[in-house]
Amino acid sequence: MSYTGWIIITASLVGLSCGLIGVFLILRKMAMMADAISHTVLLGIVIAFIITREVNGTPMLIGAVLAGLLTAFFVQWLHSLDIEQHASMGIVFTTLFAIGVILISTSAGNAHLDVKHALMGEITFIPWNTMPLPLIGEVPNATALLTLTFIIVMIFVITFYKEWKITSFDPALAASLGIPVVFLHYVFMSLVSITTVASFDSVGAIMVVAMLITPAASAYLWTEKLSIMLVLSSSFGVFSAITGYYIATWLNTSISGSMAFATGLVFMISFVFSPKHGLIAKYVHSEKEPI
């Protein structure tokens, strides 16, 4: 596999996983939670490093997932105290992220942890850090991890499809039917955390947020059927990854930043041309209405 091929495949895996998760975030009106968790996982990563003095591996994943769950818990707790949910998310993620930044500068020493790396990732170095896999050969560590993450996300989406569908649209009805709404909420938040941290090191917080929110928001403009929305969102994520790479090559700029920019282009196209919610469709509809 070529250098370009590994980068595109890795970024596409981010688009696939985040595209699936993002749909449920949009439907639950929790888009800001993607931004919150993508930043607060930094705290979990730093604490895991302080304890183990290692910059990769299982401790980092565990620390990041715990930080994501802590974020979800604090947001729900503040919301239960009659603080508006989006305000709760803003308060929690800025505070925990700031603690992570402070710990990096005071306790991480010379470790390869920095704010720029956290925000932009290092996708250009992915093809050089490899691991051997049976029957396949040398595969980048990030690609293997993101493949496993995508499989986990697919398993959970298929397993809890009906439950997450009803809890996303009508949590009160779900509770009345005996569905464990709170438990499923934290299972979902765990999945968001796992997906975020698996993508974090490769593409950074900016692209994680872009891939979690924008493809799903674009898909929401094209269809109201959940299954189609999931397929469209993942497809938009892959398309943005591929398009963004070639934009970055053309402009000689940040790959992750260009991929995030590509998700914005997809949204703008959807916003203008989608058959029901697009600007053109709304204009045509308004012209047909009797005066």
Automatic annotation (TrEMBL):
<dbReference type="InterPro" id="IPR037294">
    <property type="entry name" value="ABC_BtuC-like"/>
</dbReference>
<keyword id="KW-1133">Transmembrane helix</keyword>
<feature type="transmembrane region" description="Helical">
    <location>
        <begin position="6"/>
        <end position="27"/>
    </location>
</feature>
<keyword id="KW-0812">Transmembrane</keyword>
<dbReference type="GO" id="GO:0055085">
    <property type="term" value="P:transmembrane transport"/>
</dbReference>
<feature type="transmembrane region" description="Helical">
    <location>
        <begin position="58"/>
        <end position="78"/>
    </location>
</feature>
<dbReference type="GO" id="GO:0043190">
    <property type="term" value="C:ATP-binding cassette (ABC) transporter complex"/>
</dbReference>
<dbReference type="InterPro" id="IPR001626">
    <property type="entry name" value="ABC_TroCD"/>
</dbReference>
<protein>
    <submittedName>
        <fullName>Metal ABC transporter permease</fullName>
    </submittedName>
</protein>
<keyword id="KW-1003">Cell membrane</keyword>
<feature type="transmembrane region" description="Helical">
    <location>
        <begin position="203"/>
        <end position="222"/>
    </location>
</feature>
<dbReference type="GO" id="GO:0010043">
    <property type="term" value="P:response to zinc ion"/>
</dbReference>
<feature type="transmembrane region" description="Helical">
    <location>
        <begin position="34"/>
        <end position="52"/>
    </location>
</feature>
<keyword id="KW-0472">Membrane</keyword>
<feature type="transmembrane region" description="Helical">
    <location>
        <begin position="229"/>
        <end position="248"/>
    </location>
</feature>
<feature type="transmembrane region" description="Helical">
    <location>
        <begin position="142"/>
        <end position="161"/>
    </location>
</feature>
<feature type="transmembrane region" description="Helical">
    <location>
        <begin position="254"/>
        <end position="273"/>
    </location>
</feature>
<keyword id="KW-0813">Transport</keyword>
<dbReference type="Pfam" id="PF00950">
    <property type="entry name" value="ABC-3"/>
</dbReference>
<feature type="transmembrane region" description="Helical">
    <location>
        <begin position="173"/>
        <end position="197"/>
    </location>
</feature>
<feature type="transmembrane region" description="Helical">
    <location>
        <begin position="90"/>
        <end position="109"/>
    </location>
</feature>
<comment type="similarity">
    <text>Belongs to the ABC-3 integral membrane protein family.</text>
</comment>
